[in-house]
Specification:
The protein has two domains: 1-89, RNA polymerase sigma factor, region 2, helix turn helix motif (Rna Polymerase Sigma Factor, Chain: A, Orthogonal Bundle); 95-185, Winged helix-like DNA-binding domain superfamily/Winged helix DNA-binding domain (Arc Repressor Mutant, subunit A), CATH 1.10.10.10. Helices cover 72% and strands 0% of the residues. It has nine helices and no strands. The termini are far apart.
């Protein structure tokens, strides 16, 4: 089913299509929100709220050829950023666990925890746009074209943001465990 048909059926509050939305976008949406807020449990709440907002606002949504998922991710992003403003925190240990694999050796577990903390700290020093690109590309595992649509930027812009973000992260992580105190590019 294409996006135009999906929207038509959502406007009729078709329960089967709501299930289709959850099935299509649920996993990536959860990964993305969890990366934004840094808490898997809070992310579950935000994803649920995203679906509620989707249903509340579908009547006013007009499909114009832009992927439906861009609208859905925008709702989730806004809810996630609102939660961050309330809680004043960013990517937590649980989300970044995927960046550094867990080990069974206690020494490696400590090293992995330190590495996750360094990555978390380095991410916080990026610009908001760079953070969004990194989280969408590497946590939500979205292709560049989809990230461009979600952020309403050109693919070239997204590639530049990604390149700058990765260079900045690499530079920060290579210095003093990722805490060099410089502003993001």
């Amino acid at each position: 089913m294409d996006d135009a048909e999906l929207v038509r059926r959502l406007k009729r509050y078709d329960a089967e299509v709501v299930g289709e939305v959850v099935s299509r976008y649920g996993a990536a949406l959860h990964r993305y929100v969890a990366a934004v807020v840094g808490d898997h449990h809070l992310a579950e709440d935000i994803v649920s709220e995203t679906y509620m907002r989707m249903l509340d606002r579908i009547g006013t949504y007009t499909y114009r050829g832009v992927p439906f998922r861009a609208w859905l991710f925008q709702i989730a992003r806004n809810l996630g950023l609102n939660a961050l403003r309330r809680e004043r925190r960013m990517a937590g240990e649980g989300v970044l666990a995927a960046v550094v694999t867990d080990a069974t050796d206690p020494e490696r577990m400590v090293e992995a925890g330190e590495a996750r903390a360094a990555v978390r700290d380095a991410l916080q020093l990026l610009t908001e746009e760079q953070q969004q690109v990194v989280l969408l590309r590497f946590v939500a595992e979205e292709p560049t074209a989809e990230v461009a649509r979600l952020l309403r930027k050109s693919e070239g812009s997204v590639k530049q943001l990604q390149l700058r973000a990765l260079r900045s992260l690499a530079r920060r992580l290579s210095r003093n465990g990722g805490a060099d105190g410089h502003e993001a590019e």
